[in-house]
Amino acid sequence: MARVVVDVMLKPEILDPQGQAVQGALARLGFGGVTSVRQGKRFEIDVAGPADDDLAARAEQMAGTLLANLVIEDFTVRVEP
Amino acid sequence: MARVVVDVMLKPEILDPQGQAVQGALARLGFGGVTSVRQGKRFEIDVAGPADDDLAARAEQMAGTLLANLVIEDFTVRVEP
After folding, report:
1. ipTM of the complex
2. Is 90 exceeded by the pLDDT of residue A81?
């Protein structure tokens, strides 16, 4: 059993209204000094079998095919044993 | 300038229909062996000032107050320089 963690974030040049809403709320709650908030998605995927290079390649494919919209989002993939 | 990364995931005992939908889609796309998918949120927060213990404490407060619903979600906080 291996775990794949995929983080999907909007590309830096894409406006992030959710993140801006969080930034405004943090300021109203008294948390000062926050200069930027970006909100994205995190997927924790459990996969049967070893945490090897083959799984890493398949995880990249999963993320690029389904989990991220590559026009507006970037992703990072980590495979953990 | 420091960066705070907050990962918010549903508690293990809470049903995750988004994750289940992703799991079903991965199976239909031919990605076998996936036994569980959980979908959560990731926040990248840039804060002025040093990445010290004070920021770590404030980040925990931000997450517990605003970013996570502690009834149904768990969170982890990382502070990066």
Report:
1. 0.94
2. no
